[in-house]
Amino acid sequence: MRDTLVLNASFEPLSTVTLNRAVVLVLQDKAVVEQAHPELRMRGVEVDIPAPRVIRLCRYVRVPFRRQAPWSRRGVLVRDRHRCVYCGRRATTVDHVVPRAQGGQDTWLNTVAACAEDNHRKADRTPEEAGMALLRMPFEPTPADAMLFALRRDDLDGLPEWLAREAA
User: Fold this and answer.
1) Cβ within 8 Å of residue 65, ≥6 positions away
2) What is the distance of C-alpha 76 from the center of its chain?
3) How far apart are CA 135 and CA 133, in angstroms?
4) What is the pLDDT of residue 152?
């Protein structure tokens, strides 16, 4: 199912919703379509609208301030675009830069996406001890970054330039 980006009335990214939920919000006049999928349309007995890719809420929604995105294994894989930070191949596991055996924690700055082969080869050593260099350093995404990273690559490529630039 395609994800639709939801912007607050102030154009700040809020979340992603399913395509069906986005259409319901538009039909209930709770949101307006900011960008649509060029080739997809949603048709019904009395309705024919373009399938929304980005919608903006009509009323501002106050969101409690979150200073940082919550850490998760899926979040690390999404942040690193499912690419191993050691070799660049497809990543399927999460590796701790400072291993848990040496006191490493589950944090954004201590975890990276890795392929199973490199994760096994590194084992419970640091990258320096294993002689493995990181292609990219881990970073802590903002909550808005984490939400944009959750969009699929083809959906991210079609976002407006001002919004896609934030996710890059």
Assistant:
1) none
2) 9
3) 6
4) 57
Q: Which two tokens stand for residue 150?
A: 């959750």
**Other Cβ atoms within 10 Å of 128 Cβ, number:** 9
Return the closest-CA partner of residue 130 out of 103, 166, 164, 95: 95
Q: Which residue has the tokens 């996710």?
A: 167
Reduced to 3 states (helix: H, G, I; strand: E, B; else coil), residue 79 is helix
pTM to 2 decimal places? 0.60
Q: Which residues pair with 13 in a beta bridge?
A: 7
For 163, phi then psi, to 5°, come to -90, -40
Per the CB < 8 A criterion, the answer to whether 144 and 39 are in contact is no
What number of other Cβ atoms are within 10 A of residue 54's Cβ? Answer: 24
